[in-house]
Design goal:
With 462 residues, the protein is an alpha+beta fold. 34% of the residues lie in helices and 20% in strands. The strands form five sheets. The chain has an eight-stranded mixed sheet, sandwiched between helices. Strands 8-9-12-10-11 form a five-stranded antiparallel sheet, with helices on both faces. The protein has a two-stranded antiparallel sheet with strand order 2-3. A hairpin with a 7-residue loop joins strand 2 and strand 3. The longest helix is centred in the first third of the chain and has 23 residues. It starts with 6 loop residues before the first helix and ends in an 8-residue tail after the last helix. The relative contact order is 0.15.
């Protein structure tokens, strides 16, 4: 409460309040109706851990705080309220990050009936664009929101939440190294599932810069990044420099330069191996290169819809699990679910802004048989689906309209508008990095009386 007296924090809290009002006003103006959904509910696989609440009246049973109003907003569509929104509190027991609260957060929750993916985009963009323009304070809000597939986003930017203020795009250049004189990459490419990817660096054509970026890659866990840079030779021509250039030879190096559109004073860095292993670091290297070379556009908000997410992924134990919202409609319906689960795409989408995920949503799976099959592939039997989502499955049997929606993170939106990199700066009473509220003393130990009343026992660790 004393910290909130500081001018910066006070201003952030007032900004947050005005952003919420603006969102609410714009949603009402767009024909949406605000409804509230339960805070005490049942556990649901939303992709994070639940906060459980013990029941006094039903000993041994637990409620859950909602990770999102997912099932309820879908039931609202079945009930005939076809344009819903809510400023919804959500609760997830997650590890803290600078852009994520470890306990609770607020989102603009939206659902619509009889819509396609494009309809959801058309409804949401004016609201978010309008809010950003209202509070931009001189910064530019780019009205062009491109659609980028998940696969392309991972390839070009190394992430599914790209910062488009940085113009650098990575690309696969494996063919230039297969059977080449650069033995490290040539040998690596003999293994299945490997590739070489290039990170162009316009203006980075010096050995000093190349060494600095190589050191950055090593600090991020990679063995390093190979590089080529182009400089003016003594005879006035453009020459390629660096160990890779020598190993590849002049002809191959020139072909690579031409494909990447680079020239004198430019450089290119290389990462190699299995994409799932190097992509995250490559994405960070792309941003580091862009910042170091002054390529990242300042004073601008740039958005992109990321679409065509895979429905499933393999977990650490090699089992198939949902990679995104489990209630999404698979592209291709039931037929798509009869093949390789890892090749199934969902009608799922995220909105990225300046390197952050701002919105996540999907067209929903509203057909019980497709839902049973989708959950079966992730290891949930029909009986378990009926038990955990019985209300929704039963409602769908009465006939459900095609529907879809999304949720926009309000805390993260305000964080961007307030131009801060830490979400705690825009939350009035945030938890610390250990998910503790030191002022209120939470979490706290229950009294013996409370435990007896709930018929619970705390077991000492170890």
């Amino acid at each position: 409460f004393l910290d909130l007296r500081r001018e910066t924090l006070h201003r952030n809290m007032m900004l947050r309040s005005r952003v919420v009002k603006s969102l609410r006003d714009r949603m009402w103006a767009a024909g949406f109706t605000e409804f509230q959904t339960p805070i005490i509910t049942a556990s649901s696989p939303e992709g994070a851990r639940d906060f459980l609440v013990p029941s006094r009246l039903h000993p041994g049973k637990f409620y859950a705080l909602p990770q999102a109003p997912q099932q309820f907003k879908q039931l609202i569509m079945v009930a005939g309220f076809d344009r819903y929104f809510q400023i919804a509190p959500c609760f997830r027991d997650e590890d803290p990050r600078a852009d994520r609260s470890p306990t609770d957060f607020y989102q603009l929750d939206v659902e619509m009936s009889f819509v396609t993916q494009a309809d959801v985009f058309a409804a949401v963009q004016p609201v978010i664009q309008g809010v950003f323009e209202e509070f931009a304070e001189g910064r530019r809000v780019d009205p062009d929101w491109p659609l980028i597939s998940y696969a392309d986003s991972a390839l070009w930017y190394g992430t599914d939440k790209p910062d488009l203020r940085n113009p650098i795009r990575m690309q696969v250049v494996s063919d230039h190294f297969r059977g080449s004189g650069f033995a490290i990459f040539a040998k690596l490419l003999e293994e299945e599932g490997t590739e070489v990817r290039a990170i162009p660096a316009p203006g980075g054509g010096s050995r000093k810069f190349a060494d600095r970026m190589n050191a950055f890659a090593q600090s991020q866990g990679l063995p390093g990044m190979g590089y080529i840079f182009w400089r003016k030779a003594d005879d006035g021509t453009t020459e390629a420099a660096g160990p890779i250039a020598k190993a590849l030879g002049a002809e191959a190096t020139e072909a690579l330069r031409a494909e990447l559109g680079l020239g004198e004073g430019d450089a290119v860095f290389f990462v190699a191996g299995r994409p799932e292993q190097f992509e995250p670091v490559a994405g960070r290297a792309r941003m580091e290169i862009g910042r170091e070379l002054g390529l990242v556009e300042e004073g601008t908000f740039r958005f992109a819809w990321i679409v065509d997410f895979p429905m499933y992924e393999k977990d650490d134990d090699g089992r198939i699990d949902f990679s995104h919202n489990p209630f999404s409609m698979p592209q291709g319906g039931m037929e798509a679910l009869s093949g390789d689960p890892l090749k199934v795409l969902g009608f799922q989408y995220d909105l990225a802004c300046n390197g952050y995920e701002l919105v996540s949503g999907a067209i929903r799976n509203h057909k019980p048989e497709i839902m049973f099959k989708a959950f079966e592939l992730a290891g949930y039997g029909r009986d378990e689906v009926e038990k955990r989502f019985g209300g929704m499955v039963k409602a769908f049997r009465y006939g459900a309209p095609p529907h879809g929606g999304c949720a926009a993170g309000i805390d993260r939106m305000v964080m961007l508008l307030a131009d801060t990199a830490n979400i705690r700066e825009v939350i009035m009473f945030p938890m610390n990095q250990r998910a503790e509220d030191l002022m209120m003393g939470a979490p706290s130990e229950p009294t013996n009386e409370q435990l007896r009343e709930l018929r619970l026992r705390v077991v000492a660790e170890g």
